[in-house]
Amino acid sequence: MSMLEELNTIVASAGLPVETGVFSKAAPDAYVVITPISEHFELFADNAPGMNIEEARLSLFSKGNYGPQKDLLVRMLLSAGFLVTERRYGGYEQETGYHLYSLDVAHEYEQEEL
Amino acid sequence: MGKVKIEMPTQWLDTIAGMGNALDAAIPRALEAGGKVVLDRMKSNLRAAIGRGTKVKSRSTGKLAAALGVSPARLDRDNNLDVKVGFDENRGDLSNAMLANLLEYGKHGQPPKPFLKQTKSSSRKPCIDEMQRVLKEELNLP
After folding, report:
1. What value of ipTM does the predicted structure carry?
2. Residue-wise pLDDT tens digits, A36-58
3. Burial of B80 by CB count in 10 Å (0-12 exposed, 13-18 middle, 19+ buried)?
4. Which residues on A lie below 8 Å from B124 (Cβ)?
5. CB-CB: which of A22, A35, A100 is closest to B107?
6. Facing residues of B137 across strands?
7. B interface mutation test: which of A34, A102, A105 has the most B CBs within 10 A?
8. Exposure string (b/e) for B115-142, b if CB count within 10 Å is 16 or more?
């Protein structure tokens, strides 16, 4: 399973609508957008990469109390083996009424032969 | 605005610790070379992020990309030399840091374009390699 598939499954099972890149439907009171950040190779052997580290940002938009949703997401991500590299409150948007909370995650995957 | 730190490996710093005056002159050059690597990556990531996937035609003025730069090597409050890659603040109407923050983290209706995080991930190794290369050259190390 790829990182994006895994993230989509985790966020959906936390009960939050989720899309990758941009949220294209009519926005509910709380939703998550996943943005892939980077992929890089690590741990080389025999001139070939052994691991692929993928990073992504989860942007949680919520009109209400985002605390329990954020805590649940962090708990689920950690128990699925993700490294949470940054947690950041992005502020309250007065014109839309949404709070923004960003979670950056990383996961390493064994690199299959290219 | 987010802050990213790239430091030289401790083991490498230990090997050059006893080199005295030559080291004092070499470190600012190494830092500036490393800063330039990060600046180039950040500039390219920022240009790729600005105006991409906008709902209406982009009204970018180019001021944000033009304000990006690297400072000379200076001592920080803990007496460590560093260089800073960031935005000049003479825009007037809006803060460049605020605009960069909006691009980096997005908002409702505007997806994030994480150019800063991408820069951190992709420039860390080349930056350290370049600083080591310049230090070796300046200190005549093998």
Report:
1. 0.84
2. 999 988 888 888 888 999 999 99
3. exposed
4. none
5. A100
6. none
7. A102
8. bbbbbbbbbbeebbebbbebbeebeeee
